[in-house]
Automatic annotation (TrEMBL):
This is 2-dehydro-3-deoxy-phosphogluconate aldolase. Pathway: Carbohydrate acid metabolism; 2-dehydro-3-deoxy-D-gluconate degradation; D-glyceraldehyde 3-phosphate and pyruvate from 2-dehydro-3-deoxy-D-gluconate: step 2/2. Keywords: Carbohydrate metabolism, Lyase, Schiff base. Its EC number is 4.1.2.14.
Length: 204
């Protein structure tokens, strides 16, 4: 199992995926990996999310994590479904403890100093800055990164192909997350692969 820093350094962009139809799982994962984005975050927002993760994990090269993990029960189910890593929009003591107990790479969501301090208490140094744009954007992350000089971030929420390079230029930012790579609906695999290739090319 990879460390969360290794996962974050694999590609500059983590596509945030909302899979509504299980038939879309394989073609989307194949197109993303072909385009150079190997790290995939499947949000637990749909009833087929766990099955989608299992299908995507069969695609050679794919590193598949679960997103929108809100509590220990969902974390346990995601680990059972083979999640390579776990992403949450926020951090609670119960979820932090569950991630440590499970020994799974974990990227907890933070949006302020207290969130980061809770994470540090657990020994976490890698965070999803969420929701990135509405939490103050680049200015806010720069301010937070000053006292928390050891912390590394994956800003997510409101980031686009146009703004991703500005975030990736920040030292503590190892990658960004975003749903822009895979538009909703039936997958246009050629478009997804091309968008992924452009995103992968943003590597620092
Ligand atoms: O579902 C989750 O786990 C989340 O925490 C939220 C997602 O990461 C963001 O909604 C993605 O943001 P957009 O790229 O602006 O669509």
């Amino acid at each position: 199992m990879k460390q969360i820093e290794t996962v974050m350094r694999t590609a500059p962009v983590i596509p945030v995926l909302v899979i509504e139809d299980l038939a879309h799982a394989k073609p989307i994962a194949e197109a993303l990996v072909a385009g150079g984005l190997k790290v995939l975050e499947v949000t637990l927002r749909t009833s087929v999310a766990f099955q989608a993760m299992e299908i995507m994990r069969q695609v050679p090269g794919a590193i598949v994590g679960a997103g929108t993990v809100l509590n220990p029960s969902q974390l346990g189910s995601a680990v059972d479904a083979g999640a390579d890593f776990i992403v949450s929009p926020g951090l609670t003591p119960a979820l932090g403890q569950a991630a440590i107990t499970a020994g799974v790479p974990f990227l907890p969501g933070v949006s302020n100093a207290a969130d980061i301090m809770l994470g540090l208490d657990f020994g976490f140094h890698h965070f999803k800055f969420f929701p990135a744009e509405t939490s103050g954007g680049i200015t806010a992350l720069k301010a937070l990164a000053a006292p928390f000089f050891d912390a590394k971030f994956c800003p997510t929420g409101g980031i686009s192909a146009a703004t991703a390079p500005d975030w990736l230029a920040l030292d503590p930012v190892l990658c960004v997350g975003g749903s822009w790579v895979v538009p909703k609906g039936a997958p246009d695999v050629a478009l997804i692969e091309a968008t992924a290739r452009a995103a992968a090319a943003l590597a620092q």
